[in-house]
Amino acid sequence: MVAGLVALLRSTCRVHFHNDPRDQLRADGQGYVYGFLHAHQMSIIIGSEPGTAAMVSRSNDGQLVVPALNLAGCVVFRGSKKSNNRARGGQQAIDSLIQHVRDGRPAAIAVDGPRGPRGRVHKGVAMVSQQSGAAVLVTVARPKYRWIAKHAWDRLQIPIPFSRIEGYFAPPIFPREGEKLEAYRQRIEAVLREMEAKLDPKEFPYSVGAETTISNEPSADENGDELSAAA
User: Fold this and answer.
1) 16 with 165: CB under 8 angstroms?
2) For residue 38, what pLDDT band results from cuts at 50, 70 and 90?
3) Pairing of strands 86-88, 145-149
4) Per residue in 149-165, pLDDT tens?
5) Per-residue pLDDT for 91 more than 90?
6) From CA 75, how far away is CA 154, in angstroms rounded?
7) Helix, strand, or coil here: 93?
8) Euclidean distance between the first and final Cα of the chain, in Å?
9) CA 4, CA 152: separation in Å to the nearest integer?
10) Mean pLDDT of all residues in the chain?
């Protein structure tokens, strides 16, 4: 059912990219990793480029999204954090992502997944970037018309068929020599907060740390319509 929904949305939704740096990065031989909110994963899948690697948890929720990723031409690596002192393939999946990017192909990471808190960037995306030399492309994807799962921890957004999806890129973020992993994680999180606050102000207050982010810039696309969905 999820794969069928993604197929419908990929055939009916239009994706428009803003400030897209990928052509220049490819010309420079520079790898990159997408970093995005778990809430935006449906729009990211719809607009994904074939060959992009994605790390998916070994949970039942993760299993639901695998057919959709396969349909979009993504490469899926399954893995989760340890649970009850039992390894669940998390490190192996991270290592596979790193090698995938080193081989010159992109990867995509829901930075606050799989269980949040919403807007909290975990260390995985920074680790992949540091160990592969890839730039992090913080991405915010906002459908013009969307359902929002208001009872889900991530407030998952599902584009309504025939919607236009606006995909915004922040300037590429590069690892710095000698930088601690936590410091790099915080840099990525700060950019993500600023992007969401500016581009999706209605949803931003649900992200952790929203109260500390102040922006005086005008927000974009404030007239987007949304419907609620129980999840």
Assistant:
1) yes
2) very high
3) unpaired
4) 999 999 999 999 999 99
5) no
6) 23
7) helix
8) 16
9) 21
10) 88
